[in-house]
Design a protein that fits this description.
Alpha-Beta Plaits, alpha+beta, 5-stranded mixed β-sheet, binds flavin mononucleotide
Length: 147
């Protein structure tokens, strides 16, 4: 049985693009080895991530993520077993976006693409439904929204 977990968090204030790249690099490498798939979104200094895989493996990973000092206010939104994965194709699909580092048009494109993906996805579990609800409400914020 596959297990899914969705969480949100706030990036540490002085987090740099290089730190995000490092998180992605580790995630991609490790998740592949651990049979974990999912999607990580970073926007306006907030992370939203859905993780899916074996329950024990996933809970061990979440314990590490929770203690990671690159973010704070780490909070589980939902976790539940699922019949099938929502993101089966990818080790980790990610949408990192550091608004301070991209042009206005790139930023708009990112928001448009992610909204489109949210509209076309047909989530079947509580964790994946809430993942997209959270992503959409985050994207509704203008870039640079103060915390
Ligand atoms: C927002 C966020 C998401 C993360 N997602 C993952 C992930 O999907 N997979 C992963 O292995 N590590 C992820 N990490 C990194 C872990 O917290 C941890 O640094 C990593 O698993 C390496 O841990 P270890 O060296 O103690 O084994 C994430 C960290 C943050 C801040």
């Amino acid at each position: 049985m596959v297990y899914e977990l969705t969480f949100e968090s706030v990036a540490r204030l002085d987090l740099l693009t290089a730190d995000i790249d490092e998180i992605l690099k580790t995630s991609r490498a490790r998740n592949g080895q651990n049979g974990i798939t999912g999607c990580l979104v970073y926007y306006n200094r907030r992370f939203i991530q859905i993780l899916e895989g074996d329950q024990l493996v996933l809970q061990e990973l979440y314990k590490k993520i929770e203690k990671d000092n690159r973010h704070r206010q780490v909070r589980i939104i939902a976790e539940n077993p699922v019949v099938k994965r929502t993101f089966p194709e990818c080790g980790m699909m990610y949408f990192p976006l550091d608004a301070s580092n991209v042009s206005r048009s790139e930023l708009e494109q990112f928001r448009r693409n992610l909204r489109l993906l949210a509209d076309f996805s047909k989530p079947e579990s509580v964790s994946s439904i809430l993942f997209w609800v959270k992503v959409k409400s985050l994207l509704a914020e203008p870039p640079g929204f103060p915390l």
